[in-house]
């Protein structure tokens, strides 16, 4: 089948002539002008000495920066905390929408509200909740759980500060992941899910052996996008933590604007790009884009647990 499809496909594409390349040209020009060229310039700047030559002085300055270790550590902690929380929430929301319950469109509209809120505005909204005079402290005092306001955003309460940032970021960006997962769920033929249910697969088995394997391409895209965004988190940290906490993107901003050190700022930006690229390569390796066959997924879901364990041994 594949041998006969390839010549047919080649013949069909041959009739299109240069049209596909002409259609791709605007996006390639856009990427070259607004992404590739600035990226090359930033890397060049990161290895440029104050004397005009090339060297590792900006990298040394970045690593000797008193806040470099804290910025790197905080960025990685936020990455590890945000991505799992958002994926569990996004998958739950996507399954609710895909279940086609009554009022499905209402749930979609409610879940999509944070998409209209900017990162800085989301930080200010959550700041009004967690400050000492905010909604959370007022509610805790009114219910008698606290006698005086608790400083959730104080630098001495680092755990609460990170939790507040994770909550704010999860609220703001989970909808993006949910939309990707909903699109992936709707691309799974309903026949497989109905057949798995008929063969006795419960909800957990359908999710584990049918939905997740066939959702692999969407999971790959969502994980890469979410990881890149988590490494770039900036405005929410500034709004909630101020100077009490820093991340890599905040240090890049300070070196560029406050300290007038574009070379060190470019070094910070290059480090963020390196981390993002490494994470993307890892996800591409762990989650190949080609989904498993539906028939294989269905067999795994319908197979009894003891038989599956015996086969795995």
What does this structure look like?
Helices cover 76% and strands 0% of the residues. It is mainly α and 313 residues long. The longest helix is centred in the first third of the chain and has 31 residues. It starts with a helix and ends with a helix. The C terminus is likely disordered.
Summarize the structure.
With 313 residues, the chain is an all-alpha fold. The protein contains 16 helices and no strands.
Please specify the SSE layout and strand pairing.
Blueprint: H1 2-16, H2 19-46, H3 57-64, H4 68-98, H5 104-112, H6 119-130, H7 135-142, H8 158-186, H9 190-198, H10 203-214, H11 216-231, H12 235-241, H13 248-258, H14 262-286, H15 294-302, H16 305-312
Helix pairs in contact: 2-14, 3-14, 4-5, 4-8, 4-11, 4-13, 6-8, 6-12, 8-11, 8-12, 9-10, 9-15, 10-15, 11-14, 13-14
User: With helices defined by DSSP (H or I, 4 residues minimum), what is the helix count?
Assistant: 16
Distance between the termini: 34 Å
* Structural classification: mainly alpha
- The SSE order reads HHHHHHHHHHHHHHHH
Question: For the CA atoms, what is the radius of gyration?
Answer: 24 Å
Essential attributes:
disordered C terminus, flat, mainly alpha, 313 residues
């Amino acid at each position: 089948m594949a041998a006969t499809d390839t010549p047919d496909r080649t013949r069909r594409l041959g009739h299109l002539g240069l049209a596909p390349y002409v259609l791709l040209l605007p996006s390639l020009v856009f990427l070259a002008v607004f992404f590739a060229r600035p990226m090359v310039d930033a890397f060049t700047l990161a290895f440029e000495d104050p004397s005009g030559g090339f060297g590792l002085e900006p990298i040394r300055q970045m690593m000797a920066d008193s806040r470099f270790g804290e910025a790197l550590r905080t960025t990685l902690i936020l990455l590890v905390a945000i991505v799992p929380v958002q994926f569990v929430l996004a998958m739950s929301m996507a399954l609710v929408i895909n279940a086609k319950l009554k009022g499905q469109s209402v749930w979609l509209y409610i879940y999509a509200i944070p998409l209209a809120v900017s990162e800085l505005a989301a930080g200010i909204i959550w700041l009004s909740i967690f400050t000492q005079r905010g909604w959370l402290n007022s509610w805790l005092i009114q219910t008698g759980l606290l006698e005086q306001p608790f400083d959730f955003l104080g630098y001495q309460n680092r755990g609460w500060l990170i939790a507040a940032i994770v909550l704010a970021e999860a609220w703001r960006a989970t909808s993006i992941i949910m939309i990707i997962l909903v699109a992936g769920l709707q691309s799974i033929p309903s026949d497989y899910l109905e057949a798995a249910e008929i063969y006795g697969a419960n909800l957990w088995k359908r999710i584990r052996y049918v939905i997740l394997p066939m959702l692999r391409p969407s999971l790959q895209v969502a994980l890469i996008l979410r990881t890149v965004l988590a490494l770039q988190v900036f405005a929410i940290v500034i709004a909630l933590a101020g100077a009490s906490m820093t991340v890599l993107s905040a240090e890049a901003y300070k070196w560029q604007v406050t300290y007038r050190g574009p070379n060190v700022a470019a070094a910070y930006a290059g480090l963020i790009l390196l981390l993002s690229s490494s994470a993307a390569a890892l996800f591409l390796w762990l989650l190949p884009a080609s989904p498993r066959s539906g028939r294989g997924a269905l067999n795994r879901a319908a197979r009894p647990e003891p038989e599956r364990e015996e086969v795995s041994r």
